[in-house]
Amino acid sequence: MTPRPTGASRRSASRVALRQAAGAPGHSGRARGYRARYPLMSSDTAGDGLPRTANGMARSKEGVDVLPLAGVSPDDRPSAIDQLQPGDLVFFKLDARTKDRLDHLGIVLGYDTEGHLIFVSSREEVNGPTIGDMGGVSRLDGNGYYAKTLRSAKRL
Length: 156
What we know:
Blueprint: H1 7-21, H2 24-35, H3 54-59, E1 64-67, E2 89-92, E3 104-111, E4 117-120, E5 132-133, E6 136-137, H4 145-149, E7 150-155
């Protein structure tokens, strides 16, 4: 019989569960599923709805490729980001350990008060979506962290 977690271990376990459930693809899928009637599938396999992961969503046939995926290397960074509109999904290659898989996504918000194209996404912390994180400000233009790792965009 497995002992029931108590105190700090229970809080830690619930934080891990929340982080896993509220990752960027889950957050975007829930938002799209509720508002735009795109259900979130339980995997990346074929079926009705959006695939479960950022990689699956980017490579799926759902929606229109605004910035088609050319590859995941730094040389494959798209340049025509002026085509992006609020609500578009943007896909990133942040972690080299995931090899050829895109591993993060966000939703384009539009331009901030300084004229930078920004997006919102989930983050490492457990308290929800953000427009900035440990990686940097969520800007898609320039040479910041997220701008350098942008690889693709899709409009649903």
